Amino acid sequence: MLKKEIQVEVEKGVMLPLMEEFYTIQGEGYHTGTAAYFIRVGGCDVGCHWCDVKESWNADLHPPTSINTIVANAAKYCKTIVITGGEPLMWDMNPLTQMLKNEGLRTHIETSGAYPLSGTWDWICLSPKKTKLPTQEVYQYAHELKVIIHNKHDFIFAEEQAAKVSGNAVLFLQPEWSKKEEVTPLIVDYVMNNPKWRVSLQTHKYLNIP
């Protein structure tokens, strides 16, 4: 297939820049501890300085892959499929999620919400970033709000974001990994004083799994 033809397929969401795919245990947020198949899509311009997957940022480094192949691989493992990045909403998620749903699979997404919402989702984990705020639309659909805490000022940002999601969204505060010793006690105190929030930890890193 010619490069131009591939680009057209990517723009339609029929091919996606696939960075990696793997079967593991969900390590963060509401579904912590459950089996899930992760599909990591390349491409992100949100620019979090503490991002632990910066190699995902440049979509050109990751081969455009047919969603037929992606779905066939995912269907071998379990019923819960997590689309992550990068920022997956840079791409049209409708074709991929429709194909996954046709296979009877549950579709989850982890997103900053910085791009328009596309796709059919059973669970939307919104993790907003100050560098590029979410679209207004995604707030009302988020099932889970996960705010990364890097310093004490991030609690103010977390409350601003919590005011925008629906009352049914589950609220999480998660320490940024490199600052976990410093900010985890702050998060514990904050949740105890503001029990609408829950603590999220990157348990997969403690378990030494992907």
Give the helices and strands, then pairings.
Elements: H1 3-12, E1 15-25, E2 35-41, E3 64-66, H2 67-74, E4 80-84, H3 94-102, E5 106-111, E6 123-126, H4 136-141, E7 144-149, H5 154-162, E8 170-175, H6 180-193, E9 197-199, H7 203-207
Parallel strand pairs: 2-4, 4-5, 5-6, 6-7, 7-8, 8-9
Antiparallel strand pairs: 1-2, 1-3
Cofactor: S-adenosyl-L-methionine; [4Fe-4S] cluster; Mg(2+)
Binding site for substrate: 25-27, 40, 84, 210
GO molecular function: 4 iron, 4 sulfur cluster binding; carbon-nitrogen lyase activity; magnesium ion binding; S-adenosyl-L-methionine binding
Q: Which percent range describes the beta-strand content?
A: 15-25%
What is the assigned CATH homologous superfamily?
Aldolase class I
Computed over alpha carbons, the radius of gyration is 17 Å
Structural category is alpha/beta
Number of DSSP-assigned strands: 9
Binding site for S-adenosyl-L-methionine: 50-52, 86, 127-129
Pathway: Purine metabolism; 7-cyano-7-deazaguanine biosynthesis
GO biological process, one term: tRNA queuosine(34) biosynthetic process
Binding site for [4Fe-4S] cluster: 44, 48, 51
Structure description:
There is one protein chain. The protein has one domain: TIM Barrel (Alpha-Beta Barrel), CATH 3.20.20.70. Strand 4, helix 3 and strand 5 form a beta-alpha-beta unit. The chain has a nine-stranded mixed beta sheet with strand order 3-1-2-4-5-6-7-8-9. It starts with a helix and ends with a helix. It is α/β, with parallel strands linked by helices and 210 residues long. It contains seven helices and nine strands. Catalyzes the complex heterocyclic radical-mediated conversion of 6-carboxy-5,6,7,8-tetrahydropterin (CPH4) to 7-carboxy-7-deazaguanine (CDG), a step common to the biosynthetic pathways of all 7-deazapurine-containing compounds.
